[in-house]
């Protein structure tokens, strides 16, 4: 196989609880992952022995791109003289708590495993992916899941059955920074943080978010995904959807999304994507 095009899905966290900080600096978490039909597109083409990555988001340097890191790591671990030209067309916002980078890394590992005929099992790919980020194994496995540990301990869960509006306020949230802010806060707001432990620090970090939340949280159940910055609201019908759309500031992005039963990557073994 010389060419492959992958649809790389986003996820939301239906809830996210920080249980404790671990001695290695990571955090024990409890969460529920839901894959959604918001996608990046990644094109792969076999080459002789060099890895080249181009991205529609020019702010991401090639060698800092997690896709480049994933391909390089896979080549090193399997000790193969192989290469690929990889083109990423970004649609999932970066620094938004939607797992776009982790999903791209997972797609790269799964696609190149097939294109390079590496024969790695899913568990082997998940272990490689964990070196790149705690959410990468989720996307390699390709199922909705409850997550424990640092997010890598996965138990299957049924998908939700409601539609979603994903609200992306064009704020880049560094996961590392958000954990640092969480660790340094004097007193967590347990009521505010019932859905997501990062609500308090996210609201305190941005006046724009604070105003949006305080204005709309009584009328809508606004949920935070990951460490932010994306939020989401569930809806069932056209009337509810229109009410939600009216509260989104004009300069923010939004996506009308549906839950996925599983990732498109799950069909890669038999049919490609």
Task: Provide a compact summary of the structure.
This protein has 273 residues and is an alpha+beta fold.
Characterise this structure.
The protein has 273 residues and is of the alpha+beta class. It folds into 2 domains: 3-157, Ribosomal Protein S5, domain 2 (2-Layer Sandwich), CATH 3.30.230; 163-257, GHMP kinase, C-terminal domain (Alpha-Beta Plaits). The protein has helices spanning 66-78, 100-115, 122-130, 136-141, 175-184, 199-205, 207-216, 238-247, 268-271, and strands at 3-21, 27-47, 51-55, 83-89, 145-148, 153-156, 163-168, 223-224, 231-235, 253-257. The strands form 2 sheets. Strands 1, 2, 3, 4, 5 and 6 form a 6-stranded mixed beta sheet that branches. It has a 4-stranded antiparallel beta sheet with strand order 8-9-7-10, covered by helices on one side.
List the helices and strands and how they pair.
Layout: E1 3-21, E2 27-47, E3 51-55, H1 66-78, E4 83-89, H2 100-115, H3 122-130, H4 136-141, E5 145-148, E6 153-156, E7 163-168, H5 175-184, H6 199-205, H7 207-216, E8 223-224, E9 231-235, H8 238-247, E10 253-257, H9 268-271
Parallel strand pairs: 3-4
Antiparallel strand pairs: 1-2, 2-4, 2-5, 5-6, 7-9, 7-10, 8-9
Helix pairs in contact: 1-2, 2-3, 6-7
What attributes does this structure have?
Alpha-Beta Plaits, four-stranded antiparallel beta sheet, six-stranded mixed beta sheet, 273 residues, 9 helices, alpha+beta, 2 domains, Ribosomal Protein S5, domain 2, single chain
Strand content: 25-35%
Calculate Rg over CA atoms. 19 Å
CATH class of the largest domain: Alpha Beta
Major β-sheet profile? 6 strands, mixed
Oligomer: single chain
Q: Compute the separation of the termini in Å.
A: 12 Å
Helix-and-strand structural type: alpha+beta
Give average pLDDT, whole number.
93
Number of strands: 10
Shape: globular
What is the helix/strand order?
Answer: EEEHEHHHEEEHHHEEHEH
Total helical segments: 9
Q: What is the architecture of the largest domain at the second tier of CATH?
A: 2-Layer Sandwich
CATH fold descriptor of the largest domain: Ribosomal Protein S5, domain 2
Low-confidence parts, pLDDT < 50 over ≥5 residues? Answer: none
Number of separate structural domains: 2
Give the proportion of residues in helices: 25-40%
